[in-house]
Design a protein that fits this description.
This protein is an alpha+beta fold. About 45% of the residues lie in helices and about 10% in strands.
């Protein structure tokens, strides 16, 4: 089959341009196969990264039709099928039959990183942010010189999902939070951060959680868009790992610790009460800290006045019909989580050594 490849090309000192290449390809050919053919047969100056060709190294991440993916994993047939499913079907015009158009695939460099040349990006910020979360296990206090520090299969299983990360950069490329806040460490780093927290051999859990709790640079900078989950080629689900870190922090902090902690705890509290959020109380409790934070309370004034002027300020609150069901579900989840934590604590407690 014949396919057009629109490749976004760019040098560091020039604006991006689109160059089109036509190939006769098999539907089973990977995008990386097609890039190789373009370079070998049509334009030897095309720049892109590759290495293993087997979804292991993560080197060949690019944007394929607008989404970050591994060029060695995606093939032409599946990509065209995905495009066809996403595009609306136009009604057929039997009077004026259309000539069959050639399918097109657009290839571009990853986002959130400056372009070096064509599809090659500068990943310094990616690696620096990973380094910032200390992605290694600290075992100094548990060093046992006589033998290895062994883990049970259950303890090791907790590390499997995050351990699958190949650091391809796809999640980082699509991260909305990093796009608006360059200080946010990124989903890749926080997924690795949870890998350290979940590892029972690590002795720095509390210090790590304090570090990841620092404003919008850590876990609270995530906008929960789920793009990182949708593009991850290894199903690491970075957003899920970020949520787990948040859960660990919330278990250790009370509502007075910070506004971000208060935001989450107040949300759960109000939903338990009424099935959904009472917006009148939400602002007062979160921003105003129940009238303890006068500066935060004053910041609500301009918004409140605009809402009143436009008739959008809720004067009353009606609980949802399913409020009792919602409350029951939340309490059941909280009870289950508490029992799991208790079980894990008992499991992790070392057995006494007999004399």
């Amino acid at each position: 089959m014949q396919v057009l490849f629109n490749v976004i090309r760019q040098d560091q000192t020039a604006t991006p341009r689109v160059e089109t290449f036509t190939l006769d390809v098999d539907p089973g050919s990977t995008i990386l196969d097609c890039l190789n053919r373009i370079k070998w047969e049509q334009d030897g100056t095309l720049a892109y990264r590759k290495n293993c060709r087997n979804t292991i190294c993560g080197s060949c991440s690019i944007r394929i039709n607008g989404r970050s993916a591994l060029a060695c994993k995606e093939n032409v047939g599946s990509e065209l099928a995905r495009l066809q499913q996403a595009m609306p079907v136009e009604p057929a015009d039997t009077a004026q039959p259309k000539a069959e158009s050639i399918p097109t695939i657009t290839l571009a460099p990853m986002g959130n990183m400056p372009v070096i040349k064509d599809l090659v990006v500068d990943m310094h910020s990616f690696w620096n942010n990973l380094k910032a979360i200390d992605p290694y296990v600290s075992t100094a206090a548990r060093h046992i010189p006589e033998r290895e520090f062994l883990q049970t299969p259950e303890e090791r299983a907790k590390l499997n999902q995050t351990g699958n990360c190949i650091l391809c950069g796809a999640c980082y490329s699509e991260c909305n939070a990093y796009e608006v806040n360059p200080n946010f460490v990124g989903p890749h780093a926080l997924a690795k951060a949870y890998r350290m927290i979940a590892d029972n051999r690590d002795e720095e859990t509390e210090a790590r959680l304090e570090k990841y709790n620092q404003g919008t640079d850590g876990v609270w900078g995530c906008t929960r868009c789920y793009f990182c989950n949708s593009v991850c080629p290894m199903e690491v689900a970075p957003m899920d790992q970020i949520s787990k870190i948040k859960g660990e922090i919330l278990d250790r902090k009370d509502a007075q610790s910070s506004r971000t902690i208060r935001h989450r705890k107040t949300l759960i509290e109000l939903v338990k009460q009424g099935g959904w959020i009472d917006e009148r109380q939400f602002g007062l409790k979160v921003m105003g800290n129940s009238f303890r934070d006068l500066k935060g309370l004053a910041s609500l004034g301009p918004l409140g006045l605009r809402m009143v002027a436009k008739g959008k300020f809720p004067l009353s609150f009606e609980p949802s019909e399913g409020a009792s069901t919602v409350r029951s579900l939340i309490e059941s989840v909280q009870t289950l989580e508490a029992s799991q934590v208790q079980l894990e604590t008992l499991t992790d407690t070392p057995e006494p050594v007999g004399g």
